[in-house]
Design a protein that fits this description.
about 200 residues; mainly alpha; two-stranded antiparallel sheet; 2 strands; about 60% helix
């Protein structure tokens, strides 16, 4: 029934972008969660658990930046510098850019390609989502959060508390890293469930 969603969930690809957007728009949040929970559990590892400082910097604002700049394929360093107006160390810029580009990639908004350095480009999904009214963009992003492996795992196992997330993360990363990513993961779970309190 939701063939485009299933295809995107497993492959992060789509034969018809409009078909995927239509299915994501039509399916209720409750039905999407049930659907995602029925799919094969994705492998959860440190590298696919998002870490970010600003959700918008890894979603709507990054897509907007890429489009307005002609989608030239900025490096992680260039993305990090775009978001900072204060002098910082090179690796600080790079890490910030990497974290937010990877968040966007996990939602299907961008494609990261290895050239001389890794560069970030808009995907068709990111381009189409940006054309939606802002409130619809947020709902779409909240639904896409359910496709992130750690979020799917928490939905399948009916995780209800932030402390449970922290315990789960300790199984795949160091304590210091788990502490940094617990809040991000919990926020993504709440977004998926429609419980997140947006500023």
């Amino acid at each position: 029934m939701y063939d485009y969603i299933e295809e995107f969930f497993y492959t992060r690809k789509y034969n018809r972008i409009n078909g995927l957007i239509s299915e994501l728009s039509d399916i209720s949040r409750t039905d999407l969660i049930k659907l995602v929970c029925s799919y094969k559990q994705q492998i959860v590892k440190s590298s696919n658990i998002p870490q970010y400082s600003d959700f918008y910097h890894g979603t709507t604002e990054l897509v907007n930046y890429l489009r307005k700049s002609g989608d030239f394929g900025p490096s992680f360093l260039e993305i990090g510098k775009h978001y900072s107006n204060k002098p910082k160390k090179r690796n600080t810029y790079e890490k910030y850019g990497e974290n937010h580009a990877k968040l966007a990639e996990s939602l299907g908004l961008v494609v990261i390609r290895k050239e001389i350095v890794k560069r970030t480009y808009l995907s068709d999904l990111g381009s189409v989502i940006e054309t939606l009214p802002f409130n619809e963009q947020i709902v779409m992003l909240e639904k896409l959060c359910s496709f992130i492996p750690i979020v799917q795992y928490c939905l399948i196992n009916d995780v209800q508390y932030k402390s449970e997330v922290g315990e789960l993360l300790l199984g795949v990363m160091s304590e210091s890293t788990a502490i940094r990513r617990t809040r991000n993961t919990w926020d993504l779970i709440q977004m998926t469930r429609g419980e997140y309190k947006w500023d």
